[in-house]
Amino acid sequence: MRTAQERRNIALDEKELAALTDGFEHVERFDAEGLAVLALQEPVASFNKR
CA-to-CA distance for 6 and 45, rounded, in angstroms? Predict the structure, then answer.
């Protein structure tokens, strides 16, 4: 997916998206006017606040 120039300062790249989704069993990715929307379900481990 290509990100418009004016949105690049808020967009994650493919490597960052992969890191974000790595801890989930099910990941769905949708396009919303050129931006990726992620639905993340079933984390593989519990999350701890730091």
Answer: 36
